[in-house]
């Protein structure tokens, strides 16, 4: 396999890292008594969650357990029936300008990359800084090239998304989210749509980000990543949070039968 | 052959076709503008906007064009006294353009909506997740991709518009092809077959390039995913 040459490089610059480390202990993301139904299906049951600044939270669980839905409620791509979600102390606004502003503070990486198909790689990264942050075009492009270099796809800057491999597209998607200088990054199964040999190049970028102090919520099936990068693991099943703990606690001493069953199924082969 | 020659000598057939092309040209522009506004309303987050646009489309899509054209003359002009010009020909021409545009806009809206359905939901989600507002995601991300995906249905709408422009006769546009054809049939019943062939093939010749062009464009502009 190709050596990942950017592993030694940093993704965030010094000031971003300092900003990420300062006032640790403040809760950046809070969910209180969040409930959601799809018709008769109770997808989120009394979800309570607090994520500190700089913390890396990995959410695992069987398919259909509500982990993606929970991730998507945090920037209101899914609405909730009741409960409170706060980002950096502010309750999540309804539609409108305030919501758009808040979404700009929350980076999101999707399972299916969702790069803008009508824009080049560079334009994908510069679009939101220019249109939402009203950044000057040349500065946005300089920052974008910097970010693309750090995730190792700067040589592809003028190509269209469809010309890149899945792994490259997902790394661009991460750079695109980082270009907005988000307070927190949400990853919704970022490696689930990738060919196996491309999973690591994306995970390496995520591990690097985690070590640099970015606050992250990751929904994933990659247990290796969870062990390596997570500060805390959340185990969800049937719309509920069943366990929360450090990677060691969760992988070595799962408390509930549901978690033991889940782990035995994925770790035995 | 003599029949064709004498017809072309005594009637200005190309001038009549030119009137239909002019009707089509202006109606295409105005219906495109109105159609884009309608489709943006149809996908907007505001439900009253969606309902108004949906109501418009259902109303005009299901109404016979002839009725709209006759209404433009008898209702809008004769009753409501709305007039574009003191010159009768110019006035009826623009009344016909308005009627054709109102009618065709409904089909432009439907063509664009089929194009929007080819844009994966994830594109809009990514745009929203980055903090772009509705108008920004619509104009920068969704519509550019939807337009490329709706080239073929838009081409069909344009073809239908060109053929529908003959209904302008119902709005008293006396210079366009179907009016000229009626006139020719009235005065030259001896060459009726030739008269039909002139107009039938005239339209075929005009329309084939549109079909070829839209097929070419829809392949060339297709969004690669």
TrEMBL record, chain A:
Known catalytic reactions: a polar amino acid(out) + ATP + H2O = a polar amino acid(in) + ADP + phosphate + H(+)
Domain ABC transporter, residue spans: 29-263
EC number: 7.4.2.1
Record's keyword terms, sorted: Amino-acid transport, ATP-binding, Cell membrane, Membrane, Nucleotide-binding, Transport
Topological category with respect to the lipid bilayer: Peripheral membrane protein
Enzyme class: translocase
Gene Ontology molecular function, alphabetical: ATP binding; ATP hydrolysis activity; ATPase-coupled polar amino acid-transporter activity
Coiled coil start-end: none
PANTHER family membership: AMINO ACID IMPORT ATP-BINDING PROTEIN (PTHR43166), GLUTAMATE_ASPARTATE IMPORT ATP-BINDING PROTEIN GLTL (PTHR43166:SF9)
Entry's family note: Belongs to the ABC transporter superfamily.
Protein name: ABC-type polar-amino-acid transporter
Organism the protein comes from: Bifidobacterium pseudolongum subsp. globosum
UniProtKB/TrEMBL annotation, chain B:
Ranges that cross the membrane: 23-41, 62-80, 92-109, 191-217
InterPro entries: AA_ABC_transptr_permease_3TM (IPR010065), ArtM/GltK/GlnP/TcyL/YhdX-like (IPR043429), MetI-like (IPR000515), MetI-like_sf (IPR035906)
Cellular-component GO terms for this entry: ATP-binding cassette (ABC) transporter complex
Localization: Cell membrane
Record's keyword annotation contains Membrane: yes
Residues in ABC transmembrane type-1 domain copies: 17-214
Record has Transport as a keyword: yes
Family the UniProt entry places it in: Belongs to the binding-protein-dependent transport system permease family. HisMQ subfamily.
PANTHER family: AMINO-ACID ABC TRANSPORTER PERMEASE PROTEIN YHDX-RELATED, MEMBRANE COMPONENT OF AMINO ACID ABC TRANSPORTER
The protein, known as: ABC transporter permease subunit
Organism, as annotated: Bifidobacterium pseudolongum
């Amino acid at each position: 396999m190709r050596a990942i040459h950017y592993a030694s490089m940093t993704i965030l610059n010094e000031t971003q890292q300092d900003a990420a480390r300062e006032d640790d202990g403040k809760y950046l993301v809070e969910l209180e008594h969040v409930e959601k139904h799809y018709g008769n299906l109770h997808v989120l049951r009394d979800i309570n969650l607090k994520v500190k600044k700089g913390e890396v939270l990995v959410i695992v669980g069987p398919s259909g357990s509500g982990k993606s839905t929970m991730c998507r409620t945090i920037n209101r791509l899914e609405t909730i029936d009741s409960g409170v979600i706060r980002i950096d102390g502010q309750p999540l606004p309804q539609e409108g300008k305030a919501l758009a502003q808040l979404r700009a503070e929350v980076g999101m990486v999707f399972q299916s990359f969702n790069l803008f198909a009508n824009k080049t790689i560079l334009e994908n990264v510069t679009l939101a800084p220019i249109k939402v942050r009203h950044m000057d075009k040349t500065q946005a492009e300089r920052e974008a090239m910097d970010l693309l270099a750090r995730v190792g796809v700067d040589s592809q800057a003028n190509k269209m998304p469809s010309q890149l491999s899945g792994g490259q597209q997902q790394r661009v998607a991460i750079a695109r989210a980082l270009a907005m200088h988000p307070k927190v990054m949400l990853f919704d199964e970022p490696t689930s749509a990738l060919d196996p040999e491309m999973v690591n190049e994306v995970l390496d970028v995520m591990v690097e980000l985690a070590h640099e102090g970015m606050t992250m919520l990751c929904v994933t099936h990659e247990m290796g990543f969870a062990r390596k990068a997570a500060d805390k693991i959340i185990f969800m099943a049937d719309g509920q949070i069943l366990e929360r703990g450090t990677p060691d606690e969760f992988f070595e001493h799962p408390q509930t039968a549901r978690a033991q069953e889940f782990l035995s199924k994925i770790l035995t082969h | 052959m003599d029949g064709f020659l004498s017809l072309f000598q005594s009637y200005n057939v190309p001038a009549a076709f030119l009137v239909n092309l002019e009707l089509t040209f202006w109606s295409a522009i105005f219906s495109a503008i109105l159609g884009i506004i309608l489709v943006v309303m149809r996908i907007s987050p505001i439900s009253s906007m969606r309902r108004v646009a949906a109501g418009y489309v259902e109303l005009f899509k299901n109404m016979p064009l002839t009725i709209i054209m006759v209404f433009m003359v008898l209702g809008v002009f004769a009753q409501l006294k709305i007039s574009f010009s003191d010159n009768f020909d110019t006035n009826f021409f623009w009344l016909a353009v308005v009627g054709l545009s109102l009618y065709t806009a409904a089909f432009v809206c439907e063509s664009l909506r089929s194009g929007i359905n080819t844009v994966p939901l994830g594109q809009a989600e990514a745009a929203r997740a980055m903090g772009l507002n509705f108008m920004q995601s619509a104009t920068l991300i969704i519509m550019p991709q939807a337009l490329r995906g709706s080239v073929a249905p838009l081409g069909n709408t344009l073809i239908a518009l060109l053929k529908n422009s003959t209904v302008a006769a119902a709005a008293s546009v006396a210079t366009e092809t179907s009016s000229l054809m009626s006139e020719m049939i009235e005065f030259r019943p001896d060459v009726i077959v030739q008269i039909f062939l002139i107009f039938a093939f005239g339209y075929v010749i005009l329309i084939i390039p549109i079909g070829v062009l839209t097929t070419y464009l829809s392949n060339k502009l297709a969004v690669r995913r």
